[in-house]
Amino acid sequence: DIQMTQSPSSLSASVGDRVTITCRASPSISTYLNWYQQKPGNAPKLLIFAASILQSGVPSRFSGSGSGTDFTLTISSLQPEDFATYYCQQSYSTWGTFGPGTKVDI
Amino acid sequence: QVQLQESGPGLVKPSETLSLTCTVSGGSITGYDWSWIRQPPGKGLEWIGYVFPSGHTNYSPSLKSRVTISLDTSKNQVSLKLNSVTAADTAVYYCARQVEQQLEQKHYYYMDVWGKGTTVTVSS
C-alpha cells in the first residue's frame, strides 16, 4: 500500500502570506501526485496534477513541486478565498490514496 | 460543461445496501473513467473505486468485498452499491470524472469534475 502524509495538519496564516504545504508518499510515486482544494460544504476542486501542472482556470499563485516521496504545494500570496483544506492524492497505484489534509485558516 | 449529480436515499439501515446514482449531464459518460469518493463527517477523503469505459473496475482494498460500481450508458449514469453497511459508512458520497493524460510517456490520472455530493446516514 502507498501511504500518504501531510504536514502540517493545520496552519494559520494571513492574507498575503506565502504558504507551503508538504505531502509525503511512501514508497516513491514519481510525479503521480494531485492536489485538491476543499471549502466547507463543497466538493473538492482539482488544483494541480502530475505534481506540478496547474489545472486550467486555477490562479497562478498556486504551484506544486516535488517527485519521488516529497512534494509541496505553495500559495505565493494567500487570498481570502484560499482559506480551505488541501488534500494530496497519489495516482501511482490503481487505487488513489488521499493524504489526511491540511486546513488553512485565518 | 459537464455536471455531475449524485442521488439516492439519505438514510440506510445497518446491514442493508447503500445504492447511489451519479447522473452526468452536458457530456457523455463514454470515454472516461468514473470514480466514487466519500468523506465521513469531519474527516478526510476516502477513495472508493472507479469504473473504466469498458465496465472494468478497481476498488479500494478495504471496501472491495462490499462495493460494486457500474455504468448505464443508456441513461448516462454511474452507480454505486455498498452492501452490509454500518455506521462507519455514514459519509458524504461524491462521484467524479477521472481523466487520463499522457505526458512524457507517463499516464497521469486525476479527477477534474466532481458532483456536489450526497449525504448518507446509516442508522436504524
Secondary structure tally: strands of chain B: 11
Structural class of chain A: mainly beta
Helix fraction bin of chain A: under 10%
Q: Uncertain regions of chain A: pLDDT < 50 for 5+ in a row? A: none
Give the number of helices of chain B: 0
Radius of gyration of chain B: 14 Å
Beta fraction of the residues of chain A?
over 45%
Question: Major β-sheet of chain A, in short?
Answer: 6 strands, mixed
Question: What does the model show?
Answer:
The complex is a heterodimer of chains A (106) and B (124). Chain A has strands at residues 3-7, 10-12, 19-26, 33-38, 45-49, 53-54, 62-67, 70-75, 85-90, 102-105. By secondary structure, chain A is an all-beta fold. In chain A, the strands form two sheets. Chain A has a six-stranded mixed sheet, with no helix packed on it. Chain A has a four-stranded antiparallel sheet with strand order 1-3-8-7, with no helix packed on it. In chain A, strand 7 (62-67) and strand 8 form a beta hairpin. With 124 residues, chain B is mainly beta. Chain B has no helices and eleven strands. The model of chain B has no long low-confidence stretch (mean pLDDT 96). Classes of the chains: A mainly beta (106), B mainly beta (124).
Record the SSE blueprint.
The complex is a heterodimer of chains A (106) and B (124).
Chain A: E1 3-7, E2 10-12, E3 19-26, E4 33-38, E5 45-49, E6 53-54, E7 62-67, E8 70-75, E9 85-90, E10 102-105
Chain B: E1 3-7, E2 11-12, E3 18-25, E4 33-39, E5 46-51, E6 57-59, E7 67-72, E8 77-82, E9 91-103, E10 106-114, E11 118-122
Task: Please tag this protein with its features.
heterodimer, A: 106 residues, mainly beta, six-stranded mixed sheet, four-stranded antiparallel sheet, 10 strands, 48% strand, globular, B: 124 residues, seven-stranded mixed sheet, 0% helix
